[in-house]
Amino acid sequence: MPRRTPLLILITLLVLLATPAIYVACTWSTENPLRFEAVRLEMEPSRGVKEVGILHLTVRNVSKLPVYLTFAGLKQKNASGASAAFQVVGGIVPRLQDRPGDPSSALYLPPGGSMQCRAYIVVQDVHSPKALQDIDVNYHWRSGTGEKAHTFWAQHIYQTTDWLEKLIPAPDLQRHRSPLTLPATASPQPSPGQGSGK
Prior knowledge:
By secondary structure, the chain is of the alpha+beta class. The protein folds into two domains: 1-30; 32-181, Immunoglobulin-like, CATH 2.60.40. It has four helices and eight strands. It has a seven-stranded mixed beta barrel with strand order 1-2-6-4-3-7-8. The relative contact order is 0.22.
């Protein structure tokens, strides 16, 4: 066997091993991929809780990666405007969205895609359009690669043996914060015939 043959084989093996690792590194995460825009605010009388309303939003994926949104919490700055102190206003829960036949626990947004969502909120905490400008959306998500890794972990590692779960923990969720923005034409208003929640 020529001297160069083992070296070429070693180089080929290294390339084959490195390619998946590079792919995972490039597709695992990106910086703050989602944007949230308020559309309209309405009450939800059928839930029987006067203080709870629905904020309809458009969620946009501005990245080049597919995104699986697992949860988004809406938080509002306190009355003094201190950026370090927040109170929870509401949240986007995937299982509470209108998605007939889709029981999954994450909302899928393709690269550059968008979707309409509903956030259940305490209306008295967002009683005016001006207050909506003080809301940040803290969201948890996975990329397409991260979702595949989590699915594999859930199917083949979760609840198998304690030592294996400790050796291979669940893939972490990505966490980012994005301000809630208002439409350029008008501020969200309570739907006609609905109360303000006061």
